[in-house]
């Protein structure tokens, strides 16, 4: 894969994925959607009609899952009450936005011809993104990279550790996926801003 590019006269950006690459991105995005939705707060049963309409029933404490805690950090460090109130009013909307972004990635890949079931590995998937969809992809790729980095325990300056792992080590393979997502993100940003 060469990453995302923009042709001279087009406002859109383009990428060609192998079926394997496209299915990998789709799978990661689907896992993120599942994580975001499985941890969502229960629907409101508030007596206040305005509160029920605006659904201010979000959680007031940081998520237990380290990935979710990284995606939704406390807004006010050192002030648990303010952080809890902020989280209660914003986390539900933020979760929905992140889930929609990941779902947009899935929809884009499927609209481009990615089959529902893995199959023809020789199949090439041509993706075309307008500016708005490209920005959604950028946000989704950021979330996917944060999720993978958190699960793997990636830290700044630890590249030597990852490169020292044998090729068959699943952690090294997952780290290569993390780096590849970074490559996709970098080429997408460059293509959009060029």
TrEMBL record:
The lineage of its organism: Bacteria, Bacillati, Actinomycetota, Actinomycetes, Propionibacteriales. Pfam families: DUF2017. This is DUF2017 domain-containing protein. It comes from the Bacteria.
């Amino acid at each position: 894969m060469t990453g995302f590019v923009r042709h001279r006269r087009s406002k859109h950006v383009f990428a060609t994925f192998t079926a394997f690459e496209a299915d990998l991105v789709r799978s990661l995005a689907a896992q993120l959607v599942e994580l975001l939705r499985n941890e969502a707060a229960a629907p409101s049963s508030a007596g206040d009609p305005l509160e029920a309409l605006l659904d201010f029933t979000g959680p007031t404490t940081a998520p237990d899952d380290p990935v979710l805690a990284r995606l939704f950090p406390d807004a006010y460090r050192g002030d648990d009450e303010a952080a809890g109130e902020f989280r209660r009013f914003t986390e539900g909307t933020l979760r929905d936005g992140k889930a929609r972004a990941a779902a947009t990635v899935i929809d884009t890949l499927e609209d481009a011809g990615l089959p529902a079931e893995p199959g023809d590995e020789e199949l090439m998937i041509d993706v075309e993104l307008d500016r708005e969809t490209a920005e959604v992809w950028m946000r989704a790729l950021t979330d996917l990279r944060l999720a993978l980095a958190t699960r793997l325990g990636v830290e700044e300056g630890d590249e030597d550790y990852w490169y020292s792992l044998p090729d068959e080590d699943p952690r090294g393979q997952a780290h290569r996926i993390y780096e590849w997502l970074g490559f996709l993100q970098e080429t997408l940003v460059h293509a959009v801003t060029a």
